Amino acid sequence: MARAATLEASSMAAVVGGEQEIVLDHLTNLGLFAANYNGKGQIVAAGSSAKIQELIDSPPPGTRVVGLAVAGAFHTSFMETAKVELGSLASSIRTENPKLLLWSNSDGARVDSGDKFLELLINQVSNPVRWDLTMDSMVSYGVSAVIELLPGGTLTGIAKRAMPGVATLALKSPEDLEKAVAFVREQV
């Protein structure tokens, strides 16, 4: 992904607020992609650096746009070369089916096949993250607690709003692992 990010100047920006359809139309009109659907009221846009700057300068109605300090337009076609390279590397990996529940953040569905998980992981490089659908699935399944891995915080904040009653913990440093162990013990 790092190599793919150097091929063309690209970036990302969080679009906070506004009506989703209006935001998506605005992105399309600018030639940008919705790279992350983080939850109600937050979509991350990605595309050329110039188009991201246009979005920042002229946001959709009722929104606030925040440029992100990232190296490229991840989860879009800008990462297609990385997807191809990852697919090639992954061809030698032997998978096993997961022993714990996994959810795909490409469509929010549960994944019970190791081969399917690997395929989704490869495709995720150049396709949008659907954290919104993942949270919906976890709530439907009855998940009672969520731990966000390093560097944590952003998704935990979104989950607190979208998943009322679900306990959350964001790991911000390796030292927080002890907090995670205690958190898990409290949940069982």
From TrEMBL:
GO molecular function: [acyl-carrier-protein] S-malonyltransferase activity
Record-linked SUPFAM superfamilies: FabD/lysophospholipase-like, Probable ACP-binding domain of malonyl-CoA ACP transacylase
Positions of the Malonyl-CoA:ACP transacylase (MAT) domain: 1-175
Gene3D superfamilies: Malonyl-CoA ACP transacylase, ACP-binding (3.30.70.250), Malonyl-Coenzyme A Acyl Carrier Protein, domain 2 (3.40.366.10)
Biological process terms in GO annotation: fatty acid biosynthetic process
Enzyme class name: transferase
Keywords (A to Z) from UniProt: Acyltransferase, Transferase
Its EC number(s): 2.3.1.39
Chemical reaction(s) catalysed: holo-[ACP] + malonyl-CoA = malonyl-[ACP] + CoA
A GO CC term assigned to this protein in UniProt: cytosol
PANTHER family: MALONYL-COA-ACYL CARRIER PROTEIN TRANSACYLASE, MITOCHONDRIAL (PTHR42681:SF1)
Protein name as catalogued: [acyl-carrier-protein] S-malonyltransferase
